[in-house]
Amino acid sequence: MKKILSIAFILVFFWGSIQKNLLPVFGADNQSPGTLYSESAVLMDADSGRILYEKNGYEQRPMASTTKIMTCILALENGKEEDIVTASEYAASRPKVHLGVRKGEQFRFGDLLYSLMLESHNDTAVMLAEHLEGDVETFADKMNQKAKKIGCRHTFFITPNGLDATKKTGENEQVHSTTAADLARIMRYCIKESPQKEAFLNITRTQSYTFWDIEKKRSFSCNNHNAFLSMMEGALSGKTGFTAKAGYCYVGALKREEKTLIVALLACGWPNNKTYKWKDTVKLMEYGLNEYEQKSLLEQGTFSLPETLVVENGQAEKIGGVASVPIKVKTIQDKTLLMRKGESVRVIYEGKTKLSAPIKKGSCVGNLKYIVGDCVYLSRPVYTAKSVKAIDYKWCLEKIAKQWTFTFPDNMVE
């Protein structure tokens, strides 16, 4: 019996050792930033839109007040700073965090943007939405349209403030939600692509702002709650969020060393873990700064192309000969991309291997594609360097005549 127990103990010990060795060590190499608190996270290169790292980055989750970056950019693009906004009864009834507006109170449109982004006031978001589109539902439709336009495929807005919400659409029930990847895309649009990107950055970087209602009866002070702005050199912008369903959320941007990085976090802990989002953000930003560098795609990529392509039915040097046309690669402006150390560029030719006459000089016959991972980041056209005419009756006669041309011997000439 003792012998059996000893054998069993040894087997358990070795099985535990095997299991330990089989378990992946997350973050053990330089291709991972290490363990994160967030259930969903993305690190994006804002210049190219390339996702450098993701953890469940395509899972749809509630995003709380990070919603307000979309509300803000739509307000900047479609509203006017000097517009007068009137608080409705519905806006005044929104829960905390709120500005505490009263029905009928009026405010300057531009002032409310600081209330929205610095203090994340829920009533302010509703006021802006109602002012721009008449009601929250119509504004949410505009939010969804904008999301799709900038490439978000798994985002559904119901509210302008990010409070947890569900909506029945047909037979399905949809949740106010996004993915970390889509949230990063929205932030990228706000800081890189929108015609109002500078205004967005100015608002979200403001540390404090004070304003009055139109009648000068009450004053309001707003303070920026984006602690990341003082955590890392080059911090650009960001927005926090929290609801019971979403947990702590954050999206932020940083620019340093010719790199612009975006971090998006969803479900990054629940009370009392308010600081987890800052730890994950710093960890991902440092990973991007340390492990990635700007590289020239043209310098990194190598390729080989045939000097010529065969041209069927093309005029050659002689009847029965093979016609061909030289091809060249069009010179275009080089593009840099944030790439991990040791990462390589694949260059493939996608195009025609044979042509059919007639061929005009400068005709595009294909493209050289520069691929990193699964994405094409640069495409260079390949074109013909000269024209090739098709075989016709006249050409045939000329070639036949040339082949049959001969000279008489001298003794046959009188």
TrEMBL record:
Its EC number is 3.4.16.4. Pathway: Cell wall biogenesis; peptidoglycan biosynthesis. The keyword Hydrolase applies. Coiled coil: none annotated. The keyword Hydrolase applies. Gene3D superfamilies: D-Ala-D-Ala carboxypeptidase, C-terminal domain, DD-peptidase/beta-lactamase superfamily. It catalyses: Preferential cleavage: (Ac)2-L-Lys-D-Ala-|-D-Ala. Also transpeptidation of peptidyl-alanyl moieties that are N-acyl substituents of D-alanine. One of its GO terms (molecular function) is carboxypeptidase activity. Keywords: Carboxypeptidase, Cell shape, Cell wall biogenesis/degradation, Hydrolase, Peptidoglycan synthesis, Protease, Signal. Residues 292-390 form the Peptidase S11 D-Ala-D-Ala carboxypeptidase A C-terminal domain. It comes from the Bacteria. Belongs to the peptidase S11 family. Removes C-terminal D-alanyl residues from sugar-peptide cell wall precursors. This is serine-type D-Ala-D-Ala carboxypeptidase. It comes from Blautia stercoris.
